[in-house]
Amino acid sequence: MAGALVERVEISRSALVRNIREFRRLIGRKRKFLAVVKANAYGHGLLEVAGVAVSEGVDWLGVNSVDEGAALRDAGIEVPILVLGYAPLAGLEEAVARDLRLTVYNRETVKRLAALAVRLRKNIRLHVKVETGTWRQGVDPKDLGAFVRDIRKRPGLVVEGLSSHFANIEDTTKHDYPRRQLEVYRSACRELEAGGPRVPLKHMSCTASTILFPEPEFNLARVGIGLYGLWPSKETYLSCLLDKKEPLSLEPVLSWKARIAQIKRVPAGAYIGYGCTYRTSRPTVLAVVPVGYFDGYDRGLSNAAHILVKGRRAPVRGRVAMDFFMADITDIPGVKLEDELTLLGADGRERIAAEDLASLAGTIGYEILARINPLIPRVIV
Ligand SMILES: Cc1ncc(COP(=O)(O)O)c(C=O)c1O
């Protein structure tokens, strides 16, 4: 029924497969590969992406919430799933019932899980997160030993992983801060393992660090944005070149398409859209696009972005409203009602990249993708 839709998000299976294979080449077979599919797979469609990732042999999936993990289990996905975000105390039983691995850093969580392990007679595998300088989630390294000992003395709880997360690897080509985080992480691992058993899975990497810091002791790599065909930042790409590493060949996976809702001829001197922020300087043909900020098309793209029509660029005129915006198609002949438009992705030789929209909207490619309304159908092509 995709042809009847006014708007759709297309997911290129071949691009996704290509990106997964590029990262597998980098990660190798000895390390585990976790595909980060949180935030509706960065806007690409949780189930659609997870299905392809699992069929390509990805070992683990990473979600933000228990709900996302449960949706994957409902879809019949059986690979290990790690909840990277916060699992509320009231959601722990469901997480355990669905065999989701949890990231833990609060004593209250451990206590609840210990009670569940006894009541449900189940082994519950946990990933302890250690704070190394992002100050977001994690146990202070000086408390780590006691935290892990407390887990290990509780029947049924198993420390399967030790994780952390980089704060400042994407935004710069100078990597002294992440190197310091790495040192904090390493010394936390050393201390922990000196006083007890080894932790099977050690993981701190994201896309940028998988590319830039192929540290041998990390035996699980958590890759998000790269799977979707984006570099985390220009700085990451540049760092890769400065390190004389061959850049991965990544291909954007997502295209966002819509159909023209009306073609409108307006005179010179007409004000377009809310706030009268654009005034035509010539007789103008407008395409009315039935997409707005509710769909995730950022209001910051008002009077700034382009869309593609018949392989040509058409500038956005006036403000992006909740459900509509207008684009100037005066110079593009032969456009008809319901012709296809490309908001993101390629049409002929032109391409609108998520990074282009991000720089116009004052954000990053991650946000442009992740905020595409999940209600818009995702179609694998
Ligand atoms: C804990 C954690 N690990 C891994 C990732 C993946 O990062 P990236 O998309 O840069 O690969 C994220 C993304 O925000 C994350 O929060």
Structure description:
The structure is a single chain. Helix 8 links the parallel strand 7 and strand 8. Strands 1, 10, 11, 14, 15, 16, 17, 18, 19 and 20 form a ten-stranded mixed β-sheet that branches. The model has no long low-confidence stretch (mean pLDDT 96). The chain folds into two domains: 231 residues, TIM Barrel (Alpha-Beta Barrel); 127 residues, Lyase, Ornithine Decarboxylase, Chain A, domain 1. Helix content is 31%, strand content 24%. It is α/β, with parallel strands linked by helices. It has twelve helices and 20 strands. Bound molecules: pyridoxal-5'-phosphate. The site of pyridoxal-5'-phosphate (PLP) has 12 residues, from helix 9 and strand 9.
Indicate the CATH topology of the largest domain.
TIM Barrel
Q: How far apart, in Å, are the first and last alpha carbons?
A: 13 Å
Which quaternary structure do these chains form?
single chain
Number of helices: 12
Could you name the ranges where pLDDT drops below 50 across 5 or more consecutive residues?
Answer: none
Give every kind of bound small molecule, once each.
Answer: pyridoxal-5'-phosphate
Shape: elongated
CATH class placement of the largest domain: Alpha Beta
CATH superfamily of the largest domain: Alanine racemase
**What does the average pLDDT come to?**
96
Radius of gyration: 24 Å
Q: Give the fraction of residues assigned to helices.
A: 25-40%
- Give the percentage of residues in beta strands: 15-25%
Largest sheet: 10 strands, mixed
The counted number of beta strands is 20
